[in-house]
Design brief:
The protein is α/β, with parallel strands linked by helices. It is built from nine helices and 13 strands.
């Protein structure tokens, strides 16, 4: 990484849960070439990630924090963030276990964050343009205007676009901003965690940006369904439970703008119909989505008990 004008300390927080160890090793190897501090928070994997990690040539750049049980993505991210605070870090960058950042991705994200801050902009987070190799095109950055969702495409390779939120993996956040906005909401467990934080930061007066020059490979959801020539990502019925529950919970928050609730709610309704009609295990998807809607209305949060 090119040495910046001032010393900037960055810690990666990688959350693992029953990872493909070969894929995880590729991620950690890439990160050790870009960073000096990497925190792996393991969410109760059945494979011993701690023992495995210390057999690899990562040196003292990596620390593994085992949680013993699956406490959810938000809680694991908060554990990693808390550890980064102890190391007097300027930024944290979050990663899922199966992401693959470009060799210069972090450098480009920091460059955007520092440049925006130098212009007096209160920066919430900066994220990369991620590519899902199973899709036809890189998923665009998203921003809502009125009741319309606008896809912020990359007109130029070095474009920087303002967005409402960023996916967690590859997201660079200043620890000072986390101190102001707050950490991730652990009661969400998984899904909408990054969306809620991004919107909360926006409500507090911060702006998030997507860097078109910063690239990362990332698989969103399970194998997509081809519908009318488009590839639509599909998650498991359990993930759809969390998606629908947490979306409804978010709509109930008084600080969230009405136009965002209406626009995202319409998209959620379309997903409800699509996953009910076109997934292979449609009854399971319908049941879990409906349960998620009910729990969201009731405010029943946290990890779902066996159903």
């Amino acid at each position: 990484m090119t040495k910046p004008i001032r010393h900037i300390s960055i810690s990666a927080v990688v959350v693992s849960f029953n990872p493909d160890l070969e894929v995880l090793e590729q991620l950690l190897t890439s990160l050790t070439c870009q960073l000096d501090n990497i925190v792996v928070v393991d969410n109760g994997s059945t494979n011993d990630v701690v023992a495995w990690a210390y057999t690899k040539p990562f040196g003292n750049k990596i620390v593994v924090l085992p949680l013993g049980v699956n406490r959810g993505i938000a809680a694991a991210q908060n554990v990693g963030i808390a550890h980064a605070r102890k190391m007097d870090t300027d930024y944290v960058i979050l990663f899922d276990q199966d992401s693959s950042p470009a060799p210069d991705m972090i450098e480009k994200l920091v460059s955007v964050a520092e440049a925006q801050a130098a212009m007096g902009i209160r920066v919430a987070a900066v994220g990369p343009r991620y590519i899902d190799e199973r899709q036809d095109n890189p998923p665009p950055f998203i921003r809502f205007k009125g009741l319309k969702l606008e896809r912020q495409v990359c007109i130029r390779e070095n474009s920087v676009v303002e967005v409402d939120y960023l996916i967690a993996s590859g997201c660079l956040i200043s620890l000072s901003v986390l101190g102001s906005v707050g950490d991730m909401r652990e009661e969400l467990f998984i899904d909408y965690v990054d969306i809620e934080w991004g919107l909360r930061a926006k409500h507090a007066g911060y702006k998030s940006f997507g860097s078109c020059a910063a690239l990362m490979s990332h698989a969103l959801g399970d194998e997509p369904i081809v519908f009318l020539g488009q590839k639509i990502p599909v998650r498991s019925p359990l993930r759809h439970y969390y998606m629908f529950r947490n979306a409804v919970w978010l709509y109930r928050q008084s600080w969230l703008p009405l136009n965002w609730k209406l626009a995202d709610g319409w998209r959620l309704l379309l997903k409800y119909g699509f996953y009910t009609l076109f997934t292979q295990t449609r009854w399971k998807h319908f049941r879990m989505m409906t349960l998620g809607l009910w729990h969201g209305l009731r405010g029943r949060m946290g990890q779902l008990d066996d159903v």
